[in-house]
Specification:
The chain is of the alpha/beta class. It has six helices and six strands, in the order αβαβααβααβββ.
């Protein structure tokens, strides 16, 4: 029957699935990692499950830490949530419930994103992720820079068992050189990726990547082409 759609309809799916998965992980004693957690109810469920000893972890995205639905209408999955959800996600990072920040990088063409109703979910996030983290978490004093870097590199690598996220001897020489204090304005046409569908268009961020080194080879320099 026809009825008015409640804001709860857009979050129940995530909340119910999170609670269900946490209970299953607890019951079977299995390892569980959930991507793109975005509601306060979800992080509350994960927090309580971890306190009960479950091997549960989760990740959040930069755009869910930055935007709430009063500031942005952009088609991503999960949807942009309420301001109270943003606060809950930040608190969950601070208390260790959330250990990872992932970009949810989803490139699409301008033509694909032109019509909100038919556009695929997603936005690009690789080139803005560090600056968004510094601007939204470090500058306001929620995290130290080293805590942010751990959430974006060391912790995810350890969680997945990758040989990465460290500068110890014998580890791959994967590094990012950046100025944590430089401010810059996001101009989509200047992004190096093939897709420019960023919700951060025109916004001033703090923290500018100067170079990326992959396996000991420079693959990006600020003034030079991405690949050489």
């Amino acid at each position: 029957e026809d009825r008015e759609i409640s804001p709860w309809d857009y979050r129940l799916a995530e909340n119910i699935e999170t609670v269900r998965n946490c209970h299953l992980a607890e019951y079977y004693g299995t390892r569980l990692h959930m991507c793109h957690v975005s509601t306060k109810e979800s992080v509350d469920a994960i927090r309580m499950s971890r306190l009960r000893g479950a091997r549960v972890s989760c990740e959040v995205t930069p755009h869910h830490l930055w935007f709430d639905d009063s500031r942005l209408q952009y088609k991503v999955n999960p949807p942009i949530r309420k301001a109270e959800d943003v606060t809950a996600l930040i608190e969950a990072i601070k208390d260790g419930t959330v250990t990872c920040i992932g970009t949810d990088h989803a490139p699409h063409t301008a033509e694909e994103k032109a019509d909100f109703n038919t556009a695929p979910n997603g936005s690009v996030g690789l080139e803005t992720s560090l600056a968004v983290g510094i601007t939204s978490l470090v500058v306001p004093g929620h995290l130290t820079l080293m805590q942010l870097l751990r959430c974006m590199s060391t912790a995810p690598a350890q969680l997945m068992g990758f040989k990465a996220g460290s500068l110890r001897t014998g580890m791959p020489a994967d590094m990012v050189l950046f100025d944590p204090n430089e401010q810059w304005t996001v101009q989509p046409e200047q992004l190096r990726g093939k897709s420019h569908n960023t919700p951060f268009k025109g916004m001033t961020l703090t923290g500018k990547v100067k170079a990326t080194i992959l396996g000991g080879k420079i693959v990006y320099l600020e003034e030079e082409p991405l690949c050489r």
